[in-house]
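Troubleshooting entry. The earlier prediction with iron/sulfur cluster gave an output that would not parse, so I re-checked the input for stray whitespace and re-submitted. Clean input:
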Amino acid sequence: MICRLIAQEARRVFSRSMQFEAGLHPHMPVCDTSGSRLLYIHVPFCEQLCPYCSFNRVRFEESLCRKYFAALRNELFLYKERSYNFGGIYVGGGTPTVLMDELEKTLETAKDYFSVREISVETNPNHLTPDRLMVLQRVGVNRLSVGIQSFDDNLLRAMGRFEKYGSGSKNVERLKATTGYFDTLNADMIFNFPIQTDEGLDRDLMLLLETGVDQVTYYPLMVSDLTRNIVEKTLGIVDYRKERRMYHRIVERLLPEYRFSSAWCFSRKESMIDEYIVDYDEYAGVGSGSIGYMNGICYANTFDLQEYIERLKRNEIPLMASRRFSLQDRIRYDFIMKLFGLELAIAPVRAQYGKRLIRYLWPDIAAFMIAGGLRYRRGTLYLTGRGRYYWVIMMREFFTAVNNFRAFCLG
Ligand code: SF4
C-alpha cells in the first residue's frame, strides 16, 4: 500500500518536472567555471536494439556515427567557448564503445578543454576485448560500466541479447578477465523481469559474486510508454510486488561483500565513483536527447539525430526545451537525489536554501519518517532499510518519467 502510494506520488511529481516550457526559447544555464560539475556525453548507437530498453538509442550505422561524434566535439567546444568547466565525465548510451577511435578522440578533446579528474564509460560485454580495454585505459577511463543485465541464457534470449552480447557463462569469463584494468569495474544488472524467478535471481547473484567485479548497479526493470507493448509481448507483465521481494534478496546476498553506494548501487571499496546524479549537484548533457540540470534549469537537446548534427554544423547549441524549476522543485530534487546516496547532511542544504528548506520539505520528511523510511541523527537524515526500497521506487519513476519524455518528443 505505502509502496503504491510512493510510486503514484513520484510518478506525478516527476512527470510534472518533465513538462518542459513549450514554445519558449530554451534557456542555456549561465556559465560556471567550477570544476565540480559533471559532463554527461550521450552516444546513442547500439549494434543490436534490446526490446525492453527505454533509453535513447538507435541502430549503429558507421557513417552517421562518425558525423555524430564530430558534432559532439563541436558541442564540447561551444561549452568551452562559454567558459564552462567540468570535473567529471560520464559517457553513456547506447553503446559508447561502438567506434573506439571516435570515442578516444572525443575524450581527448574533452580533457583538453576541461579540468577532468574522472571518466566513466558504459559498454557492452562483447566489447570487453584487450584492444578496446587498452584504448580506454590509455585515454584515462577510471570506471567502466558493463551492461550485463542477467547471466540467465533464457532471459538473455528473451531480451534479444544472447546472440549479440554473449551467453551468461561467456560474460562471467569476460568480466573476470577485465578486473584490474580500471579503478572501478561495474556490472549493470536488471531484476524483476516478468519471467525471472527467485531461483534465477539467486543464480545471477551467485555468478555475479564469482566475477569479483568492484561494483554492481542493480536496476529494477523500467517500462516506459515507448516499450510497454513490446515488453509485455516478449517478457510479460511487470509485477511490482515481486520487485520488493527481489530487491531485499539482492541486498541480503550482496552485503557484506559489498557496501551500499546508493540504494541500488553496491561497491566493494570505499572511494568509488557512483551515480553521477548523487555525486554531482549539477550536470550538463551533450549529445542528442541529453538532459542537463544546472542553476535550477533542466534542459534537453533535440532527439532528432540529423537536426542535432545540422545545428552543430551551424555552431548552435542544439537545445530543444528547458524548464526552470521553482525553488520548491529544486529543494525536492536535491532531497530525493542526495538521499538516493543514503544520507543527507542538513547543514549544507540549509546554508543553500535557508529556512525555506524546512518549510517546503517538512511534509515529505514527516511522511517518510512515519512510513519508517527515514531517521534523523545528529544533523543528518538517513535512509532505513525500508527507505532504501522506497528510494528505488522513486528513482524507477524518475527514470521512467525521463524515458516517457523522450517517447513524447519522438511523437
Ligand atoms: S540495453 Fe544497452 S545495448 Fe540494449 S538497446 Fe539499450 S542501450 Fe543498447
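This one parsed fine. Residues 46, 49-50, 53, 55, 57, 93-95, 124, 147 surround iron/sulfur cluster (CB under 6 Å).
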